[in-house]
Amino acid sequence: MTTAVVVGSGPNGLAAGVVLARAGVGVTVLEAEDEIGGGMRSGELTIPGLVHDICSATHPTAVASPFFRSLELERHGLEWLWPEVDAAHPIDGGRAGVMFRDLDRTAEMLDADGDAWRKLYAPLVKNSDALIDELFRPIVHVPKHPFMLAGFGARAMQPASWIARRWKTDEARGLFAGLAAHAIHPLNKPTTGGLGLMFGMTSHAYGWPVAKGGSASIASALAAEITQHGGKIETGHRVTERPQADIVMFDTTPDSVLKIVGDELPGRVQRPFKKWRRGPGVFKVDFAVDGGVPWTNEWARKAGTVHVAGTFEQLNAAEKEVAAGRMPERPFLLVCQQYLADPGRSVGDVHPVWAYAHVPQGYTGDATEALIAQIERFAPGFRERIVAQAVSGPAQLEAHNSNYLGGDIAGGANDAWQVVMRPRLSPNPYSLGIKGLYLCSASTPPGAGVHGMGGFRAATHAVANL
């Protein structure tokens, strides 16, 4: 029997394990930590019974993922739950941009900018399945829908600041800024517009759900699929040298690959891996909040995700500071209120609130107060409602998941060059240039997110090359 080892059990490592096990390969997934999942982990971080997500929280790319949808993971207990409001973007004065799964309802809420919002997103939503299939592939590929992809790509390569010119109100511009800010990159830089387009499309086409019981349930469902087909999973096994198997897949950063098998790699692989740049970090605080966050805007109280920064200009100023290696006074925050869709995570009227701020790479300070103050800005009285909190800076995040180098949860900087050269320009960017060795992490196409497509694509290549 052909044997395989997958190093790392994040969404891509587990996805690779599923593909290999289903193909009849004797696959073992090795995880350095005591529990599987990578970013898909959950736990009681503050008070007993309160369920927090360790990293990933809301999962628009998971429900959009062609691979995940093909697996029917509901058979293994995975259940998706949607909040009433996908996302809100508060503006000073109690205003907010509000995004529903329903495109028309979103446009109605955006008032004067509603028609322009609908005009941009309606064609994307109409062709969402075909577009996702194209976008969740390497940049270098033969497209099935070349004209559609070319039309999207022409806009996606633009800075978010260019696309935002079509809107006049702070609400619409801020809402788009929050979507684009998932790039963790200044919004006046090329390719940031693509994230804003994709995340808006996924909201209106699929919604932004959470996994019932916590993100760990996604990992559990994928693990069940692996073992059902004869695969094995071992935790507490940190890999420091090349595993002995016909196929070895690394759900790790390029840095880790260089440490384990660097001397074996051909120069065409070593060179770009050595030049791979880490992205900015995040500073995460999990709160136990009595009564929930008292957002001034009523729609933010119903939103599964809240992007906290203020206007487009204020958000972009914060991202520029982070990119320059400086901690902004008012950082961009991503706040998730998963309990709104999944009330079973709460204990009585005490609710888990997930929040992180974008911070410079390797930031060693304490951003807790800046994070709380930024929420308090749009939710006066929030501080008094905090029952408990758990803080994780970049160093703590990396200690818990070695892929999060310096707090970088995106698998590398999302500048224009690395978006295209992820991790190197090649028709098969997953191959490490040696028979049987592959990279399948968030550092490969299509990038970060709980969608498993990097693992699926890499493992599919491996099986085809047997």
From TrEMBL:
It comes from the Bacteria. It holds the Pfam family NAD_binding_8. This is Phytoene dehydrogenase-like protein. It comes from Aeromicrobium panaciterrae.
